[in-house]
Amino acid sequence: MKHALILLLLAAPTAFAITIDNNNDEYLGASIDYINHGLRVNETGNPAKSTENQATGYSLRAGFYSNSYLSWEMEYADAGSADRYYAQPGFNDDHLEVSQRSFSLSAIGHLPLNETFGLYGRIGFARMSGKGTFESQATGQSGSVSARATKPVIGIGMEAKLNNGWRAYTELTQFSKLKYGEHGSWPADSQHVRRLLAGVSYHY
């Protein structure tokens, strides 16, 4: 995975040099993100269980168009946090909270539909960082777990030109699964994030 990320980084300046034309521009963007957290947690003495939680996050992006059909983008995304409550006999409020942030580099392929609307697809790599904190009424334990990994990220979206400088966009993005380590008898097994976002960008 690290080798693929290095190749993507090396390919970016080459693409800039080869495909640059009179249509290129740079842009900055920001969005509000609706996040779906998928959590899989191993409970003491019980099989692993999966659950989904929703949260609100945000993302900031900066990019450069090589031509009308290709851009390269850096993005910081805060996926907010998700809660997981345990239901063990006699203890109903054992609690795990998990948050995730990422920094990604992606290639964006653009398909103009007309002068106003266009579709795009994203493929890249994200450096993800997750943290979980937990408290157990059943065992009296508390603590935290964390994980970091570089994983693929993919997405599809639509954008619309508002005027010569501003554009609106919406996107569905899927981040790869992030695995956590164990802490005592309370392992947080894994987390995956899917987001639906809406934002605006300024092109200059």
Give a structural overview.
With 204 residues, the chain is mainly β. It has a single domain (2-203), classed as Porin (Beta Barrel), CATH 2.40.160.20. It is built from 1 helix and 9 strands. It has one helix spanning 2-19, and strands at residues 26-41, 49-67, 70-88, 91-112, 117-135, 142-161, 166-175, 178-179, 188-203. It has an 8-stranded antiparallel barrel. β2 and β3 form a beta hairpin.
In this structure, how is the largest beta sheet organized? 8 strands, antiparallel, barrel
Strand content: over 45%
CATH fold category name: Porin
Q: Give the spatial strand order of the biggest sheet.
A: 1-2-3-4-5-6-7-9
**Spatial separation of the terminal alpha carbons:** 34 Å
β-strand number: 9
CATH class: Mainly Beta
Order of helices and strands: HEEEEEEEEE
Helix content: under 10%
Blueprint of the fold:
Elements: H1 2-19, E1 26-41, E2 49-67, E3 70-88, E4 91-112, E5 117-135, E6 142-161, E7 166-175, E8 178-179, E9 188-203
Antiparallel strand pairs: 1-2, 1-9, 2-3, 3-4, 4-5, 5-6, 6-7, 7-9, 8-9
